[in-house]
Amino acid sequence: xxxxxxxxxxxxxxxxxxxxxxxxxxxxxxxxxxxxxxxxxxxxxxxxxxxxxxxxxxxxxxxxxxxxxxxxxxxxxxxxxxxxxxxxxxxxxxxxxxxxxxxxxxxxxxxxxxxxxxxxxxxxxxxxxxxxxxxxxxxxxxxxxxxxxxxxxxxxx
Length: 157
Description:
The chain is mostly helical. The chain has seven helices and two strands.
């Protein structure tokens, strides 16, 4: 799976804000994280609407996290940046009819999507920041989340 540029940039911006722990200008974020500034401002609006970041106006204004990094999941960020696309796909998919095989495939896709969402919801900005800054064993951090999701799936099956 490859993330869209907007998702990548949005994740970078949120991780930057988490690392800085203070209000940061769009100029600083854009330069330090290699994000086109105009695009960053558009993405910041989506993240602000989702309650992930706050915007502070004024000469010394900028952006900061609206919540602690351990309270923001990767799923929160992805949902904020991709929700319009996801809901339109769901409505198209549910309006189609199909054979039992098609219905079985759809159920499987739904389970995969649910599992991916649960995994992404378990990954916090704090955990990703630890991986990015090499403050922890990235493989261990991620494998623990995978194990948790595997146990959850086994319990419902």
